[in-house]
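User: Structure please.
Assistant: Input sequence and predicted structure:
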Amino acid sequence: MSVPGSGDRPPPAGPSASGPPDAGPKKFLLRLNPALYDVMEQWAADELRSVNAQIEFLLRQAAREAGRLPRSRERR
């Protein structure tokens, strides 16, 4: 039985769908200004990274420089 208006969307991810909480990277929605996304996309391409990897790299670098990234969690 299908739910009206559900289209072909997969079921929402929940604890049973994604496994234990520490099973991998945390997933979340990030809204960016389109111009900023374009900058990130070009920067990522210049450094042969995905946009996601570029954003994570920059966040990790900023957290390290601010002294907020513990040494034990710096590398995965």
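The mean pLDDT is 81.
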